[in-house]
Amino acid sequence: MSLLKKGATLTSTLENYTVIKPLGEGGQGEVYLVHAESGDYAVKWFYKRMATEAQYHAIESLVEQGAPSEQFIWPMAIVENDSEDQFGYVMPLIDSRYYQKLTRFFSGELTFKSYEKLIEACMQMVQSFYTLHLSGLCYRDISFGNLFVNFKTGDVRICDNDNVTYDSLKSVEDNWGTYGFMAPEVIIGDAPPSTATDLFSLSVVLFRMLYRQHPLQGRREYEIDILDEAAFMSLYGTHPLYIFDPIDATNRPVKGVQDIAEFYCSILPQAVNDAFERAFTSGIKVPEERLRESEWMQLLTTLKYNITYCLHCGKQVFYDASIIRDKKALPACVHCGKAVDRLPVRMKVGERIIVLNYDTELMMDVLTPLDMTAYQTTFGSIVQHPRHPEIWGLKNHSEYVWQYTTQEGETRTIEKNGVVPLRHGMMINFGDSMGVIRF
């Protein structure tokens, strides 16, 4: 039975809203589609047991503070009716034509258009929680039920933001969250939710997106007959064990049952595997060892620019300079199994290798990897000669003037919208950074 009837009127300090229909329900309340003069919105209406004075003041505080970024579907105003003991809040409406729950990715219903879009979604999540934490807030209950994604673009929306609170909780009685995402210290009652526990939850989300499996669900979970409260407490709280723990192999993925992570472990660059090993070994027990958002962003930026295409089957694969350095050869394509006999076109900027493909877009994070928002701004792209597609050039999309030296030794400049033809050994001066082209 719905808490609010169709046609009911809700009021706020902004405007009045008419209830159109229910959209869903959860443990705290029900969500409705509402209409106002300014357009359509969503309202979360709390159950009586959740409509406390503390909750009311918490929502008031969030409304006053405002959304940290556009990714957060943030409370706009408290809404009320003639009830004395219930209330809710109005928020922007998620456009279901474009945004779908991330859970549909793991069920196999939807997939990302490309690895670039998958990584874009990961980067937006990292940047969103960085902005939230920078505001002195923590989310408390990061899980897939609260995450929506545009699978074509990688754009992210984060809902249920009444979970958000100040990163200053002292009492463990304030704990809540979702098993499988909560940090172990929260589950066992040793610490309240905080920025540090958010970082653990974020690492779980990123692992599941990149490896398609949970980092703690291996043989131990498979051998449990009944997944009850005690089982969850052991798996995620008192005895969590990474499925790729380098010392203890008792929780490895079960062959043919839950082993998809092994495939992705074999194709992702070693630096990515190393980062998650840290996150789920030392980072499980020592919050200070968890990767911060800036570290994730640099890692994801590198991963994005390591995407290339198999010369035989055309599918996306990852270039891993460390493997080539160690084995002195390129690994075979994981999709078609054929040997790769030619390195992709690359550009070295500082210590980083940027793989250049026919469709590569270069963002400012190539030049300023420590800037958490640099991935949002294009500064260059690969273009092909209209009559000779085998000839590639780098187009300047920025306001900066680039310089390069021709084969004849002449120095030339490339202004905005200009194109420099690429050749092996070429050095391009971007201002504060130098790029070296390698074929």
The name CATH uses for the topology of the largest domain is: Transferase(Phosphotransferase), domain 1
Q: Describe the main β-sheet briefly.
A: 6 strands, antiparallel
Poorly predicted spans: none
Question: How do the strands line up in the largest sheet?
Answer: 1-2-3-4-6-5
What is the mean predicted local confidence, pLDDT?
A: 92
Shape: globular
User: What's the level 1 CATH class of the largest domain?
Assistant: Mainly Alpha
Record field, number of beta strands: 23
Multimerization status:
single chain
User: How many helix segments?
Assistant: 12
Number of domains: 3
CATH structural architecture of the largest domain: Orthogonal Bundle
Q: Helix coverage percent of residues?
A: 25-40%
User: How far apart lie the N and C ends?
Assistant: 65 Å
Strand proportion, as a percent range, falls in 15-25%
Give me the Rg, rounded: 25 Å
What do we call the CATH homologous superfamily of the largest domain?
Transferase(Phosphotransferase) domain 1
Q: Which structural class fits the helix and strand makeup?
A: alpha+beta
Protein name: Serine/threonine protein kinase
Pfam families: Pkinase
InterPro entries: Kinase-like_dom_sf, Prot_kinase_dom
Organism: Fusibacter paucivorans
Task: Draw up the topology in text.
Layout: E1 9-11, E2 16-25, E3 29-36, E4 39-46, H1 53-65, E5 77-79, E6 88-91, E7 100-101, H2 103-106, H3 115-134, E8 137-138, E9 147-149, E10 156-158, E11 165-166, H4 184-187, H5 195-211, H6 219-222, H7 229-238, H8 260-267, H9 270-279, H10 282-285, H11 293-304, E12 307-309, E13 316-318, H12 321-327, E14 345-349, E15 352-356, E16 361-363, E17 378-384, E18 392-396, E19 402-405, E20 411-414, E21 419-421, E22 427-429, E23 434-438
Antiparallel strand pairs: 1-2, 2-3, 3-4, 4-6, 5-6, 7-9, 8-11, 9-10, 12-13, 14-15, 14-23, 16-17, 17-18, 18-21, 19-20, 19-22, 22-23
Helix pairs in contact: 3-5, 3-11
